[in-house]
Amino acid sequence: MASNVFDVLNTRACRGLALGALALMLGTGVAQASTLEVSNPRLSLLPGNTPGAGYFELENTGESTVTLVGAESPAFERVEMHVSSEHDGMAHMHAIESLEIAPGERIEFAPKGHHLMFMRRVEALSEGDEAEVVLEFSDEQRLPVTFAVVSPASL
Amino acid sequence: MYKLLLAGVASVLLAGCSDQSWRTTDIDDIMPPLDFTLIDGEGETVHGEDYQGKATLVYFGYTFCPDVCPITLARLGDTIRRLDDETRDNIQVLFISVDPSRDTPEVVKRYADAFGPEFVGLTGNQADIDAVTNRYRIAYEYGEANEDGDYLVTHSSAVFAFDREGQAQFLVRDSHPVSDAEADIKRLASQGG
User: Backbone phi, then psi, for A129, in 5-degree steps?
Assistant: First the structure.
């Protein structure tokens, strides 16, 4: 199962150009599964090997709760879901394993709150590029989303 | 000459109303002047006094921080970008790493440069970093490393502001309205000199 996933991702990486063109035709930045709608996906990145942050909005238009359990991207070795918070003047960040989205609910991954943390770049990426990310759900649903690579200054 | 005179008048006026407080947290009486021994992006040893002559904002963070640090620095960059050219020349931002094992001079330089010409990246040995964090009474703490050896750092989220003589002025916290932080930064950078 895992190797299948990687095969799929590798194939996808090789077809990056075709996919990119397709994404453009479909309207960049909008991904839609049957009952899940992602909007405004952005990957905030700086030069060098610093980690990136993924921001987006996700709406569950279905009639049952879905659980986001993670994400992966061929452009990074590791992707985690994190939450930033502030207590007593200290900036904290911690990983979360899952996030439930109720029917009709819209969640926001946004600066200084929930975000995807992209670690260890394996592909060169810079502002203006696109990065393929797959959001993973507990029911095995996998939602491919094209993230626009942006500077944190644009957020 | 005219400018000098104006600046002089402004200083007298400001001195005359020293009870005019900052909109963010005033730290004039409670925090010591800007002083440290650290290493800059060129690998040179630098001291707090080397940064006198401009209003100085100081943020303690680490480059392996995807969200809070770059967002905070980018917003400071936005505020600075909105100043007029002359005022912008009178302000600088020091990013002091609390994670020197990953943040080498080269890494902090590239990181700070990404936010604009007003940003300076500083690192140092752990003892010198502890000296400056203790001086401004802030804490930081390393999280557990994952199997890749990557770890997170919990750190102060505040921005410290010093005037061009290196005297502590105000502290911006996350809870302060952005408009208050912007107003104070603008006023600090516009002060005579």
Answer: -75, 175
